[in-house]
Amino acid sequence: MTVRAGETINIAAGITGKPVPAISWERGGKPLMAVDRVSLVNDASSSNLDIRKCMRKIDQGVYQVTAKNKVGTASKQIKVTILDVPGEPNDVKISRVFANEMTVTWSKPYQDGGSPITNYVVDRRDVHMVTWTQVSASIDPKKMVIVAHKLLEGVEYVFRVRAENNIGVGPPAESKPTLARSPYGPPGPPEAPEITASGRNWLNIVW
């Protein structure tokens, strides 16, 4: 069974037996109880398990329903896969800085949500602004690098990167604020000049 994160997991099991068997559910070998998001409804011929607003990290796994009476025990298992958006990318860095462009790099998320990453979305923001400007929404998942152009010299920028799969766009990871500036500048001052020789109408100065 495959469901999307946030949906309801519904597993229905037909039950037969005389005497009427007692029903129990497990996930990953641990008993399931009817609490919070979990609902269990049993009658003489069936057992229904509902888990509302399912979460990949918590609810994915192998479920087992067991019917038991004095005659014997019978069990049935079902594997539940939950698909979700990817996790946040890692190591978002600015690797090259110029007056009007920066190179942004990152590494893939630890979790792809159970669905392959299709692309990355990159945005930028002036640190003094609250709104984001999209740099690209279609970056090849194998590249994980982009050069952001048309920046303003002297402005400090933050970049955020999000991974996307067929389920949707995941949470962002941000770079450190970085100032757009030329890596080149005027030379520093020379060392103090020194007079090494002189005459009536001349000086020899070195530095």
Automatic annotation (TrEMBL):
Q: Name one Pfam family in it.
A: I-set
Can the keyword Nuclease be found in this entry's annotation? Answer: no
- InterPro entries from the entry? FN3_dom, FN3_sf, Ig-like_dom, Ig-like_dom_sf, Ig-like_fold, Ig_I-set
Q: Which SUPFAM superfamilies match?
A: Fibronectin type III, Immunoglobulin
Q: Where is this region: Disordered?
A: 170-195
PANTHER family, alphabetized: FIBRONECTIN TYPE-III DOMAIN-CONTAINING PROTEIN, MICROFIBRIL-ASSOCIATED GLYCOPROTEIN 3
Q: What is this protein called?
A: Titin-like
Originating species: Branchiostoma belcheri
The lineage is: Eukaryota, Metazoa, Chordata, Cephalochordata, Leptocardii
